[in-house]
Design a protein that fits this description.
Number of domains: 1
CATH class: Mainly Alpha
Strand content: 5-15%
Structural class: alpha+beta
Helix content: 55-70%
Strand order of the largest sheet: 1-2-3-4
Order of helices and strands: HHHEEHHHHEEHH
CATH topology: Outer membrane efflux proteins (OEP)
Largest sheet: 4 strands, antiparallel
Number of helices: 9
Distance between the termini: 43 Å
CATH superfamily: Outer membrane efflux proteins (OEP)
Length: 414
């Protein structure tokens, strides 16, 4: 029974001694393969270009137009063709604030897109952690079940030998044989669960579906209990809260833009032309030019400005209400995840203590049976108790590791 104690000791204290991929490396591979992160990056690029495009409205516009005309009937003393080519420069001097506020709104939307990318990374980090810890747990489940099958096979060999010698009844032999069959059936189910976890692990990172992997980190590693994060600190970190706050800022710029559209606008245009005389006599051309100062003053639009501003202000109110909702949900998520984390930590400590006792009890029961001081039922019960407690210890370790990852996502912790 030294193997039992060694396996229990491994779950209690040890860490993985060698491996091929660490949790950090796996996260990076998931980030690179994730379509949701790629989409978030594209949104950031779009927002950045939108901001740059809004900035160009501060600059003068240079354009040109031209035309070439051919007549069907020649005018008296003229040619059948003529042309005109006119470049011009336009500059908005005062647009009522619409250009300035539109640029600020675009810059604000760009910063919001960056928080959207951060949110996508947080979600994928949790997905990667869950897949990694699940595969780690499945490896331990397989190892524990294989050890359990080995223990029962060993007992079956002893009981069968005693049955052949006439020391035990056939009922004892059948009981052990039935327990062995159940254990082997459970091992097949556990191995299938491992394959499913492996597929999930590989699919998230774009690896070959059937490719096996060795993990550097494990749920049996010592994962420190994180400190509890205060609400204000959490709000400063969470992407959805920051995103909602920037939505309010964007909506307020929308109010200014709606109002600015009905303010006076002043612009200047300098243009020139190179064209033929009309009628065109001998292809002679001349140059001309002009500067135009324009003023556009809205006077009466049947209350259109008032309604446009009211609609924009309603959007501000809607965004403020959404921020309150996001903060309330975040506070609840933090409280729930902290309770789950604390509970899973306590369960893990309890299960590890119980596992130590169950391993010792199984070793004593098996030894007592070999010495004729215990029945086969005592040994079977000790085996069942050991595998149940061992499985509970693995589950508790897994739940704790996932709870830590969930709390890190909720509080946007590094």
């Amino acid at each position: 029974m030294n193997r039992i104690l060694l396996l229990s000791f491994t779950l209690l204290f040890s860490t993985a001694s060698w491996a091929q991929i660490s949790l950090a490396e796996y996260r990076d591979s998931v980030y690179k393969y994730s379509n949701s992160i790629k989409d978030a990056v594209f949104v950031v690029e779009q927002s950045r270009e939108q901001m740059k495009m809004a900035k160009t409205d501060f600059l003068p516009e240079v354009s040109a137009s031209g035309s070439f005309t051919t007549l069907f009937r020649r005018p008296e003393g003229g040619d059948l063709w003529n042309f005109t080519l006119g470049p011009r420069i336009e500059q908005l001097i005062y647009g009522g604030g619409i250009v300035r506020n539109a640029y600020k709104q675009a810059d604000n939307n760009y910063r919001a897109a960056l928080w959207g990318e951060a949110a996508a990374i947080l979600d994928m980090r949790y997905e990667a952690d869950y897949a990694y810890w699940l595969l780690s747990a499945m490896k331990l489940y397989v190892a524990a079940t294989e050890e359990y099958v080995g223990i029962i096979k060993s007992l079956y060999g002893v009981v069968r030998e005693r049955f052949q010698e006439g020391y035990v009844a056939k009922g004892d032999l059948l009981q052990v044989e039935t327990r062995l069959s159940d254990a082997e059936y459970s091992l097949l189910a556990i191995k299938n669960n491992y394959d499913v976890a492996l597929h999930r692990f590989n699919n998230l990172s774009g690896r070959e579906e059937g490719l096996d992997v060795e993990l550097q980190n494990s749920i049996i590693d010592s994962i420190p209990m994180p400190r509890r994060i205060g609400l204000e600190e959490m709000f400063d970190r969470r992407p959805d809260v920051n995103f909602a706050e920037l939505d309010i800022v964007s909506a307020k710029y929308g109010v200014k833009i709606a109002r600015a559209a009905y303010n006076p606008q002043i612009g200047v245009e300098v243009g020139g032309s190179w064209q033929t005389y009309s009628p065109n006599n001998g292809g002679r051309t001349y140059l001309d030019g002009a500067m135009v100062l324009s003023l556009d003053v809205p006077i009466f639009h049947w209350g259109e400005r008032k309604r446009a501003v009211a609609m924009a202000r309603a959007e501000v109110g809607r965004m403020e209400n959404r921020l309150d909702e996001v903060c309330g949900d975040a506070a609840q998520f933090e409280a729930d995840d902290w309770s789950r984390l604390s509970s899973s930590y306590a369960q893990m400590q309890s299960s590890l203590h119980n596992l130590e006792i169950a391993g010792e009890n199984l070793s004593i029961s098996t030894y007592s049976y070999s010495e004729g001081k215990a029945t086969v039922l005592d040994v079977l019960q000790a085996q069942i108790s050991w595998i149940q407690i061992y499985t509970n210890a693995i589950t508790a370790r897994f739940d704790y590791a996932v709870a830590v990852s969930a709390y890190m996502r909720t509080t946007a912790a590094d």
